[in-house]
Amino acid sequence: MTMSTVRFLFNNDVVTLENIDPNLTVLQYLREKQFSTGTKEGCCSGDCGACTVVVAELENNQQDLNYKSINSCISFVGSLHGKQLITVEDLKDGAKLHHVQQSIVDNHGSQCGFCTPGFVMSSFALHKTNNKPSRADVIEALAGNLCRCTGYRSIIDAAMESSEHKQVDSFATNYKQTVQQLNNFKQLPSAKLSDNQHRYFAPKNVTELAQKLIEDPKATLVAGGTDLALSVTQHFNIIEDLVYLGDVSELLTLENNDDQFVIGSAVPYSEFTPMLHDEYHELGEMIERIGSRQVRNNGTLGGNVGNASPIGDMPPALIALGAEMTLQRGDTERKIAVEDYFVAYKKTVLKDSEFIKDFYIPKAKPGQFLKLYKISKRIDDDISAVLAAFFIELKDNIITDLRIAFGGMAGIPMRAKHCEAALLNKPFNQDNITAAQQALTVDFQPMSDVRASDKYRMKVTQNLMQKCYLELQNRTIETRVVNYA
């Protein structure tokens, strides 16, 4: 056994992996290697939540644990290094069910039972951080779990049952030992996996990462894997050389400075969203619609931008805010505007051996507003047909600065330059909004696909401009869905 293998806690047992295919998902590992079949396979795309497990990892202070629900079907097994993996089989104490399991029983929250383990694990993760969750807390935590045969009321009722005075579970009893073991894992060298044909490497700093990419410029980078893993689980691709970014310390930067936020490219959404939500409420609300909590616990800003999808939700918002990003190759860095990263469909300015290091997001100044609108068939956990982002600065009702960006309207997320020109340095009134709506037909010639027709996309984009105007004219009216579960 080498020192650079993958090691983690499976419940409370130390597991060492070597000579295993790094394309293996956590779900496959559980069911096919450990024969822990309580975790179910539903969609293999991170949509249904039947495969939900919980990982515990050290907080930045190295003394506290963060319990996170994740989709095991789209998480590669190498990402478990240095963490604790908890499955539904691990919850009960002897013959006694864990209180989140017992609550499901008491509230008749299961029929066929196929989805139940996933709901249990999402509820378990919630109660580890919130022992008296509100209905809103529960709905947000369970939004990534689907049930195909029963109503959700009994499941929600079960998850809402307070765990404040429940019996301490085995994870609380073993808390200190778990923290110590995970700290011991921290001292290990960078993890590696190989089955002789496929390789996995998890560098611990940018020096190791940069060197690896210089040596292997075609290596595939993965952080959360919430999109990349689908190429394996849905399209049956094989990744020969996988480089995991979740252990690179410099990519986990999170700073809240006087005039800007700095977010490392490998920081999960769930960790940076509260910070952004306090500054830009609508940005925080929009991020909560990016996948489920399981997806946001793994997904990263670097992945969403780096993927260069024309329907990624974060790029239009970042472009509208005038955000910048740092790219690094070897020991050379360069900073560019996020809008300059995209060249054509799925093509970017990223050079061979170069990677995204971090993002710089300016804070709002007086008179500046960010309005965001996501159009999708479902409120939660769905892909956008159109994502509209409006950044507007008003002084005495004159538009003194603005950036308007859209996703889903072209082969890349991009600004509406003609629309902006119709508004800049002009009064913020209906006549100019109408002119800007017409200018959108010059900026974009959208396509038709399974999510929306070209005519629908153009019409809804023009309507969103009108909605933005109405909301800024009267900031007390409610124009959006606020209660939906």
Automatic annotation (TrEMBL):
Please name the SMART domains in this protein's record.
Answer: CO_deh_flav_C
Which InterPro entries does this one have?
2Fe-2S-bd (IPR002888), 2Fe-2S-bd_dom_sf (IPR036884), 2Fe-2S_ferredoxin-like_sf (IPR036010), 2Fe-2S_ferredoxin-type (IPR001041), Ald_Oxase/xanthine_DH-like (IPR016208), Beta-grasp_dom_sf (IPR012675), CO_DH_flav_C (IPR005107), CO_DH_flav_C_dom_sf (IPR036683)
Q: What is this enzyme's EC?
A: 1.17.1.4
Q: Which PROSITE patterns match?
A: 2FE2S_FER_2 (PS51085), FAD_PCMH (PS51387)
One GO MF term: xanthine dehydrogenase activity
- Every copy of the 2Fe-2S ferredoxin-type domain together lies at 4-91
Q: Which Pfam families match?
A: CO_deh_flav_C, FAD_binding_5, Fer2, Fer2_2
- Alphabetical keyword list: FAD, Flavoprotein, Oxidoreductase, Ubiquinone
Superkingdom classification of source: Bacteria
Q: Ranges for the FAD-binding PCMH-type domain?
A: 193-366
Q: Which NCBIfam families match?
A: xanthine_xdhA
Q: What is this protein called?
A: Xanthine dehydrogenase small subunit
UniProt source species = Shewanella psychropiezotolerans
